[in-house]
Amino acid sequence: MKPKQFLVIGAGRFGSALATTLYELGHEVVVIDSREARVEAIMNQVTHAAIVDATDEEALHKLGIGNFDHVIVAIGENLEANILATVAAKSSGAQHVISKASSNLAARVLARVGADKVIRPEHDMGIRLAMQLATPSIVGAFELGETHGVIEVEAQGELVGRLEQLKLPNRFGVQVIAVNREGRLEVSPRANYELCLGDKVVLIGSNEAIARLRAHLR
Fold this sequence. Notes:
Alpha-Beta Plaits, 9 helices
């Protein structure tokens, strides 16, 4: 996979964790923050770090902001700075801006001023944890755009047996795309593949189909 280029604006806890992880995964990561201490703390863990005012469009132009695959505005504690940085990033030619919001109101405002995607890490993590606690058989899930998603479940009960007998596409509208059995991955298993107790099953489907499966598992 070709390395991507990321610009992370804000080196707080979320921004630092995001930036260092992306760098460890082999991508080029530039981090900017207006606070010198935060820049110094992360400068040896990313491609480049600099003290830059993210609301300054001219400074963002000099960084070549249009060359980055993704720009992440990770300023969560100051809504005004977050909004100004998001606007400046878009006005300076950023291709794809992802902004972090700390509230529903902030999310709506950031979407209106041009953020291509708005995330609420604490909110989203809370929802995922609640779903996992309510339905222990669900290992993980994420959305694919606005209409589809992927869910990973642990095979048990009515999810144990041959795929052709389980008829998951007919019953729920989901397709099995992979099965992880004790570290061994089976991709696109055939109809005669048998799911065993404890298998981690990865399924894809519409959000409505996944909701039906969730309700059934509960």
